[in-house]
Amino acid sequence: MTTARAATIVLTKELRMEFRARELLSTTVVFALVVVVLFSFAFDPTAGESRRYGPGLLWIAFLFAGSLMLNPSFAREQSNQTLDALRMAPVSPFAILLGKMLANLIFLGVAEVILVPVFAVLYNISIAGIVGRLALVLGMGTLGIVITGTVFSAVAAHARMRELLLPLLLLPLLAPLLIAAVEATASLFAEQPALDRAWLAFLAGFDIVFLTASWLLADFLLEE
Amino acid sequence: MKGRSAITVVSAALIFFAGYAALFIAPDESTMHEIQRVFYFHLGSWMAMFIALSLAFVANVAWLVTRKPQWDWLGVASVEVGVVSCTAGLITGVLWGRPAWGIWWTWDARLTTAFILWILYISYLLLRGLIEEPQRRASLSAIFGIFAFLDAPLVYASNRLWRTQHPSPVILGGENSGLDPTMGKVLIVCIVAIMAVMILVLVDRYRLERLRHELDELRLAANVRGFGADSGSSSMLTKGLP
Question: How many CB atoms lie under 10 A from the CB of residue A177?
Answer without folding.
Answer: 28
